[in-house]
Design brief:
Blueprint: E1 3-9, E2 13-20, E3 25-33, H1 39-54, E4 61-68, H2 70-76, E5 83-88, H3 92-95, H4 100-104, E6 109-112, H5 128-138, E7 144-149, H6 157-170, E8 174-176, H7 177-180, H8 186-217, E9 223-226, E10 232-234, H9 235-240, H10 248-261, E11 266-271, E12 276-282, E13 285-286, E14 294-295, E15 298-299, E16 307-310, E17 316-321, E18 328-335, E19 337-338, H11 339-345, H12 347-359, E20 370-373, H13 385-393, E21 398-399, H14 400-403, H15 407-419, E22 422-426, H16 429-435, H17 444-454, H18 469-496, H19 505-509, H20 512-518, E23 535-538, H21 542-553, E24 557-558, H22 566-572, E25 576-588, E26 591-596, E27 599-603, H23 606-627, E28 630-646, E29 649-665
Parallel strand pairs: 1-4, 4-9, 5-6, 5-7, 7-8, 11-23, 19-22, 23-24
Antiparallel strand pairs: 1-2, 2-3, 9-10, 11-12, 12-13, 12-16, 14-15, 17-18, 20-21, 20-22, 25-26, 25-29, 26-27, 28-29
Helix pairs in contact: 1-8, 2-8, 5-6, 10-22, 11-12, 12-17, 13-15, 16-17, 16-18, 17-18, 18-21
């Protein structure tokens, strides 16, 4: 018999499922806590438990497929390694566009003359001597490089030359913009390359951790990774292009939702520890975002499922909004280690710190908050003296009060959090669920103490924000419901295309008339608003939170069996799909230029150029699909011609040719 093993690594849990290939059904599932310091531990615990429950031998596993929210979470939380951008042929104004300053976050930029024009001709020769001197100086202080050149999609020669030099001089990973997208818009291509370079270490640790455990237990099967559009790619390809795994977990959850429920028209809401991901199923398939995946504040050039990802999850940080005399709560976007989980692993530290703080007359800003060093490779590259001093003090789990002594050190600690060197611990919706009796897996007593401490915070009027832990816990769960409703409404308005489509979905979701409609307002004007499609709720905590969400939105809430491991299921029911894209332009009368990853080729007529493009791209797509682990390929070719009518004559402008190779993943023994 052949079994398929699906694994999903999220911010809090790692899930594993075993599917029987012959009967196409789930026969086992298991969960383990994600172990950030060594991902192989959590992955191994989940895999071993699932295999034991299924009663199958490792040699019977024919395919392993991995999905993850770690890349998405890292971008939402602003985390990742320190990188350098090599920016060739662009102006200072270009550097300020497309979200690049926010993506770089102060990381270094090497700006050089060079690049090509729209026809693929060299504008200025690339100064390799200057480049070598600068990358040699930066190499020890960064984890990788991103390279973007002006019109690099029309001619990638300068990006390739820079890549080869950087690898030779530094040995660091290098990402080129043209490798990730064939579309124009240099600054956004540079942003995508920066994010890819920042994620390489994270995905390398994930794939290596999974591979190591598979080898340890004797599973000799192809390892695939889910891409952001739901297709599968080989683990080797994911290592080189980790940016394509953003929205991997959510894309897998869409596949899992469709497989589990059979619903064809629905909103899918997947709540994890860090994020909530919402997408629309139409005709049983998700829509691919033509503008490129948006994650948090960043609009990338990565093709992915059209999905809205919000920093809202079961482990979201709780903030007090004390505007004026009243206080409110806001959750996210940063994920914290729940106090109840921290206390399970470090009971003496957590309980003693909470007891001392509760006995004090006044609250300190950081009372009830803790910090946990992760000791991840690359996270300590390029630290300042103050950051290094704070990290050196953290020999193990600690209270924040013991970890920092000044406001400046507190700022350094927050930068260490952003780098992924440490994690903060504080109250979260998971803790609120323990206080309310909805969860009992960790230390509920610690959660109640932390809630009691947090409830003593004051509003602008001087009153406490809550009378005690129970009231605060319910307020946190109510806030999670409210923010989840907003997430779903934003996605619904964005997809609806009604008469209001010019307005921002974020505004419409929170509009007074929308609120009144949800409240079923009855007066001179009667208003009713509800979702017109059901909601499929996924995630380990969906059953605990989403009943109230469905009631508020007046819609059917579908909570399928195995909802908590839908991502892992979706990871093994997908297909491999790879594409290659080229552009044909007309630089002059009777001239037609094919622009592709191989460079620029000239032809004497349009049809010959288009046929040559299709033939070359078919070979490229086939090679990519086979490298991604596909077999039994089928091809889809799309030619998108742009022409203009000038003085009664049809004039060729340009044409995009796209060849997609689809196939099923190879499994062991085939």
């Amino acid at each position: 018999m052949a079994y398929l093993l699906g694994v999903d690594t999220g911010g809090t849990y790692t899930d594993a499922v075993v599917l029987d290939e012959a009967t196409d059904r789930v026969i086992a599932s298991a969960k383990a806590l994600t172990t950030r310091h060594d991902l192989s531990l959590g992955i191994g615990q989940a895999i071993d438990a699932a295999l034991a429950q299924a009663g199958c031998r490792p040699a019977e596993v024919a395919l392993v497929s991995l999905s993850t929210t770690l890349a998405t979470n890292a971008l939402v939380e602003g985390q990742g390694g320190r990188v350098a951008l090599v920016f060739i042929g662009f102006s200072p104004d270009d550097l300020a566009r497309g979200g690049l300053p926010e993506a770089l976050g102060g990381d270094p930029v090497i700006a050089l003359a060079g690049g090509h024009n729209h026809a693929g001709g060299e504008v200025v020769p690339l100064d390799l001597v200057m480049l070598e001197a600068q990358v040699a100086a930066l190499g020890p202080d960064v984890t990788g490089f991103a390279v973007a050149a002006s019109f690099g999609t029309r001619n990638p020669a300068h990006e390739l030359a820079a890549r080869d030099l950087i690898r030779r001089v530094t040995g660091r990973p290098v990402t080129c913009g043209h490798e990730l997208s064939a579309r124009l818009n240099g600054p956004r291509r540079a942003l995508t390359a920066v994010l890819n370079a920042r994620l390489i270490g994270l995905i390398e640790r994930l794939v290596s951790g999974c591979s190591a455990h598979l080898a340890l237990v004797g599973i000799d099967a192809p390892l695939m990774v889910v891409r952001g559009d739901g297709a599968l790619i080989s683990a080797a390809m994911a290592r080189e292009r980790p940016i394509e795994t953003i929205l991997s977990g959510p894309a897998a959850s869409i596949e899992g939702a469709r497989w589990l429920t059979g619903e064809s028209e629905a909103l899918v809401a997947d709540i994890g520890g860090t994020t909530t991901d919402v997408a629309l199923l139409r005709g049983g398939r998700p829509r691919i975002d033509p503008m490129g995946a948006r994650v948090g504040a960043f609009r990338t050039m990565v093709e992915a499922v059209a999905m809205r990802t919000t920093g809202l999850g079961g482990d979201s940080e709780v903030h007090v909004l004390a505007d004026g005399l009243q206080a409110g709560l806001r959750l996210g976007p940063r994920r914290l280690v729940p106090v109840s989980l921290m206390a399970r692993d470090h009971p003496a530290l957590v309980h003693s710190a909470l007891d001392r703080a509760l006995q004090a007359e006044a609250n300190g800003d950081d009372d009830g908050r803790f910090v946990l060093p992760l000791n991840l490779p690359g996270a300590t590259t390029g630290l300042t003296v103050r950051e290094a001093a704070v990290l050196a003090r953290l020999t193990g789990a600690s209270s924040v009060n013991a970890a920092v002594t000044t406001r400046m050190e507190e700022a350094a600690l927050m930068r260490l959090v952003a780098r992924g060197a440490v994690m903060l611990c504080g109250i979260t919706p998971s803790d609120a669920s323990h206080v309310l009796g909805r969860l009992s897996v960790w230390d509920g007593v610690a959660a109640e103490k932390a809630m009691a401490l947090f409830a003593r915070k004051r509003t602008g009027s001087g009153a406490r924000i809550a009378t005690g832990p129970q009231e605060l816990a319910q307020a946190i769960i109510d806030q999670l419901t409210a923010q989840t409703v907003d997430c779903l409404l934003e996605a619904a308005f964005d997809e609806d295309g009604g008469a209001w489509s010019d307005a921002a979905p974020e505004v419409l979701a929170r509009h007074a008339l929308t609120r009144a409609g949800l409240d079923r307002h009855r007066g001179i004007v009667e208003l009713t608003a509800r979702l017109g499609v059901p909601v499929i709720g996924l995630g380990a905590s969906a059953a605990a939170y989403y009943g109230a969400v469905g009631a508020r939105l007046g819609t059917r809430m579908v909570l399928p069996e195995h909802a908590g491991v839908a991502n892992a299921i979706g990871a093994v029911v997908g297909q491999v799909s790879m594409h290659a894209e080229g552009l044909v332009t007309s630089p002059g009368p009777g001239q037609f230029a094919l622009h592709s990853a191989a460079g620029v080729a000239l032809f004497g007529d349009r049809d010959t150029a288009l046929d040559a493009a299709e033939a070359a791209l078919r070979v490229q797509a086939q090679g990519l699909a086979q490298a991604a682990g596909a077999q039994d390929l089928r091809f889809v070719v799309v030619r998108d011609l742009r022409e203009a009518l000038i003085e009664g004559q049809t004039m060729f402008v340009d044409a995009t040719v796209r060849v997609t190779a689809h196939g099923r993943p190879r499994i062991a023994g085939q």
